Structure to design on (634 residues):
């Protein structure tokens, strides 16, 4: 990202870190209103549509049993089991509907939060630097809801647990009622609760409380992950993330111990750490010197503000005390706010006007955020059908191919490729791909054609410790990759990595932190090609980003699962924490999830090296994407 200093600056009364902190806490206050609105919406849906359906189904089924008496013989037992099963199915349908509504809302929250964070950074940093912070891909933000685990479980698993718990509790209540000879209305009371306890003592009350906890925690999770993706997207400007527990009046021990600590982007603990967690995160920017701005040319106001220290830990009360009167009145209500200002009311944690709620549109309006509704609509299209366009205009095949490439690149830059790629992928085969199709009979001819189409091949150097003998196949591997990668549009003239040769390594791997390939003296050339793919993602700007964009396009709408599920019936066993998407990849491992990279480039290169015919025939879409990416087209 191009960044330059502004010659004339409008100085803040506080440093950029302080301003970002204040914006985050103010926004978190509004998020608490949003959480309450989301809870009211989902609980209202349960109480209006789901719970009455359960009672209705129960009453229908129990009439047949009660009419015959509760003799608890085989016939009654069978009817009872069928009744419980029918009610359980009604619960499943209702909870699935509730979960689907919640997931749709959370996707909107993810898009909103990323836009808010980008705007907050632009407003704070934009006073001193000419910069426009980037947004993550829409598909990547939406996938948070389905694919990024919250405390070890993805959203479908949380809702599955809620559903199962409700089914078990309702089934238990029915069976107890039958055993004790209760009437249908008495059994219903077991579900609905009693007026004396404000209907909190029934099964439905327990389900509502559990649902509220999951809903509140899910909002925090999605908000945090959307910010994390935004930080990751701007890693050239953001160096860390501060954990902030300011809003918690009953801060858990773990949040209290993390409050104020700074962690690298994509590393370390993040909220939510527990149910109903109110902790949040704030970006920590690189200093001007870390951004390469040094010397007397830096305006003093810019230097003082951009290099400010991360704010100290503080309670919500101490923070609110320093905020404008208007915000205090908004949060506490005018009467309580006046008592707060005079010192008659003290606050440690978040307290507000208890009746205040917000829906997503109200939050967006409050923060001045605009999210095009088309991005919130399932299956929304980003462009018109290219096939129809070029057919109507009577364009030649070469112009068609050119327009396809231009459109695809435009979609990627606009983060809309996830909505439009399915419309153009059938014609996304350029002239190079067509020629390859004609010479599939020979691996060598394919490789030769690919290499002849690449100008300005990328020099790749493997640095081996003195006295260590690198694999004899290594030169073949580095030469192969080098011949396929063009430097024309990659912004890099050469790459180099270190090699650590040792017989103790069970399998080769590339460490992106120290740019080192670990292997044995007998590692296969195809395996070295694979690891060089990881080196390319690490060293070539935006290559990993483009790979993650393509992955998001391919797996859009698919649930992330444990990798082991893709390899059932094989001898391969992976760690249970390794997750990914199956898609229709030739090798299921291609869909593995990493925070900052993928397996697409490395495994794609390995297949190009080993069997390009099979690669093209089995997955022409990925074949063409990889060839064009390496050749500098994309």
């Amino acid at each position: 990202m191009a960044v330059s200093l502004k010659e004339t600056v409008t100085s803040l009364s506080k440093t950029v870190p302080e301003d970002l902190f204040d914006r985050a806490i103010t926004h978190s206050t509004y998020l608490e209103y949003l959480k309450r609105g989301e809870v009211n919406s989902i609980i209202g849906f349960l109480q209006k549509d789901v719970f009455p359906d359960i009672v209705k189904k129960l009453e229908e089924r129990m009439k047949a049993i009660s009419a015959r008496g509760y003799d608890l013989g085989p016939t009654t037992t069978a009817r009872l089991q069928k009744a419980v099963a029918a009610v359980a199915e009604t619960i499943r349908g209702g909870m699935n509907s509730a979960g689907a509504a919640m997931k749709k809302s959370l996707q909107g929250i993810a898009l909103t939060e990323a836009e808010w964070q980008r705007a907050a950074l632009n407003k704070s940093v934009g006073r001193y630097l000419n910069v426009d912070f980037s947004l993550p891909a829409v598909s990547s933000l939406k996938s948070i809801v389905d694919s990024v685990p919250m405390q070890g479980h993805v959203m479908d698993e949380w809702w599955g647990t809620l559903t199962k718990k409700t089914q078990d509790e309702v089934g238990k209540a029915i069976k107890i009622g039958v055993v004790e000879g209760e009437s249908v209305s008495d059994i219903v009371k077991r579900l609905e609760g009693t007026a004396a306890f404000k209907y909190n003592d029934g099964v439905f009350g327990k389900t509502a409380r559990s649902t509220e906890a999951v809903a509140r925690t899910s909002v925090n999770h999605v908000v945090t992950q959307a910010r994390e993706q935004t930080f990751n997207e701007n890693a050239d400007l953001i160096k860390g993330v501060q954990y902030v527990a300011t809003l918690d009046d009953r801060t858990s021990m773990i949040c209290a111990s993390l409050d104020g600590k700074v962690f690298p982007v994509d590393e370390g603990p993040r909220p939510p750490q527990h149910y109903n967690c109110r902790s949040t995160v704030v970006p920590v920017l690189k200093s001007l010197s870390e951004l390469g701005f040094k010397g007397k040319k830096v305006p003093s106001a810019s230097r003082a503000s951009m290099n400010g220290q991360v704010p100290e830990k503080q309670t919500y009360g101490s923070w609110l005390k320093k905020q404008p009167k208007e915000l205090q009145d908004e949060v506490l209500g005018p009467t309580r706010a006046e008592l707060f200002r005079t010192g008659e009311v003290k606050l440690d944690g978040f307290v507000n006007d208890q009746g205040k709620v917000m829906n997503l549109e109200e939050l967006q309006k409050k923060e001045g955020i605009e999210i095009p509704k088309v991005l919130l609509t399932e299956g929304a299209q980003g462009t018109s059908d290219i096939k129809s366009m070029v057919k109507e205009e009577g364009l030649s095949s070469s112009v068609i191919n050119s327009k396809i490439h231009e459109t695809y690149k435009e979609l990627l830059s606009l983060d809309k490729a996830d909505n439009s790629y399915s419309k153009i992928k059938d014609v996304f085969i350029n002239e190079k791909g067509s020629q390859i199709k004609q010479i599939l009979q020979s691996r060598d001819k394919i490789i030769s054609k690919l290499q002849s189409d690449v100008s300005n091949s990328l020099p790749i150097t493997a640095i081996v410790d003195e006295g260590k003998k690198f694999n004899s196949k290594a030169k073949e591997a580095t030469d192969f990759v080098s011949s396929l990668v063009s430097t024309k549009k990659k912004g890099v003239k050469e790459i180099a990595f270190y090699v650590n040769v040792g017989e103790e390594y069970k399998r080769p791997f590339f460490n992106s932190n120290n740019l080192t390939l670990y292997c044995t003296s007998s590692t296969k050339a195809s395996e070295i090609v694979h690891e060089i793919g990881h080196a390319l993602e690490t060293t070539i700007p935006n290559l990993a980003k483009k790979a993650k964009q393509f992955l998001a396009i391919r797996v859009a709408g698919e649930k992330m699962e444990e990798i082991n599920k893709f390899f059932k019936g094989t001898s391969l066993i992976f760690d249970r924490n390794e997750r990914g998407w199956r898609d229709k990849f030739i090798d299921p491992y291609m869909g593995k999830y990493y925070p900052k990279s993928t397996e697409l480039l490395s495994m794609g290169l390995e297949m190009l090296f080993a069997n390009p015919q099979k690669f093209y025939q089995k997955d022409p879409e990925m074949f063409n994407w990889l060839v064009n990416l390496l050749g500098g087209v994309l």
Notes: The chain has a mean pLDDT of 77.
